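Table S2 (text version). Query chain:
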Amino acid sequence: MPNSNEMFNPRPVLKFLDDSIIKKIITEARSILGNLGVEIHNKEILSMLHDHGAKVDMTKGHVLLTDDVIDDALKKTPRSFKLYDVLGNETHDFSGYEVHFTPGSAALNILDSNTQEIRRPTTEDYVRYAKLVSQLQNIASQSTAFIPADVHEHISDSYRLYLSLLYCEKPVVTGAFTVEAFTVMKELQVAVRGDEDGLAAKPLAVFSCCPTSPLKWSEVTSQNVVDCARFSIPVEFISMPLSGFMAPVTLVGTLVQHTAETLSGIVISQLTKPGAPVLYGGSPAIFDVRYETTPMGAIGTQMIDCAYNEIGKYLGIPTQAYISLSDAKQLDAQAGLESSMGATLAALAGINNISGPGMLDFESCQSLEKLLLDNEICGMALRLTKGIQPKEDFPALPRFEELLKEQHLLISEHTQKYLKEELYFPGPVIDRANRPRWQDEGSSTLLQRAQKEVEKLIEHYAPSRLPDTIKRELTKIMSEEARRCGMSDLPRIDV
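Corresponding structure-token output:
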């Protein structure tokens, strides 16, 4: 529920669960963790849990979490935290019902801007992406959105972060698929901040850490949680139960599993370092048995996202979700339908970090044109969260006296004062011209307008203001890591 200060804010709030159901879901999740337990393939973490009172079978890598262990972790979990850009400016406040949008992450493919066919992305594609997202006003952070195929796979995690820090000033949502990659990615962030204390004071990135459904943590992902906690690098827990396949078919049953898996991650994080910043996140989905797919744009998936966000808020933890994305294969009506519905629901639910813009094809493909369109969807959703409130509207009589006298209010002082604050005006990708004007200007389609605007923004890109000395240090770190993996040179880029 909104706190007392928010009661005077007209912000609309969407809720799917009442507190009695939330309490029951949490109770059932605790019962699962205490009676069935969780599997963890990391001996260091198993020893830590044992030392804190959990019931651990070191041979089987199996843990039963007691209520005391869970309660202790929840008490230590921060109620909010902030993110900062490469220049040290605050960009995110993960508290209350504040919402921020970030592109979907780690796609294997990109939708080619010219051919509209999917293909493996390259460094050039990533640079274009970073230049574009740096100018999208409604997208608060960047993500390591897709995986360039022109570098060794062992450096693909750190390389994406490297390019992001070079070309875009916004903070980054990222992740590491190997233990070794984390070390390099931490060094890149420290190079930007100056030292580890500076990075802890002003976090630059959020790392996604994903348990395996049902109720399992691999060695790599659990170690990422520990490593991030040690350096106060924020993590978002991305539990991914699949309703009717790797989770109960009911939405409530899926929420119970999601809660159990996320609580287990919170325990690992907070026992490693009390107060380590976290987001109560996820990427669950329903399972469509007709096609054997996991539709991220399904209404059931979106309802689960909004509902577990309510559970996170009930526990007092800031939240995240993969929502505001589509399973469509092109920039079409389905892409707009699913992405806009997800963004709207997520914003109304108050999900603090909303991941998904730009994504197509079950989280496997990024599109720069869709990212541009989604930026407008995000803008509309952000306007929605401001609600409706009076702005010198009472008494109304003077305004209508002026209207009757002038026969319009186009140049009224009241109009000029509140026009841009009250009304959301999208960019040229959204067509608001009348038909004759639209025809006179070439009868362009949505895709054509998006392609034109993407190229325009990339052409007018202003380089990151990160000092050149730091850019050279980032390149030095990345080049050394590439050579360690057998690459003599990194792909040529123009910084």
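Notes on Table S2: The CA atoms of residues 238 and 282 lie 4 Å apart. The radius of gyration is 23 Å.
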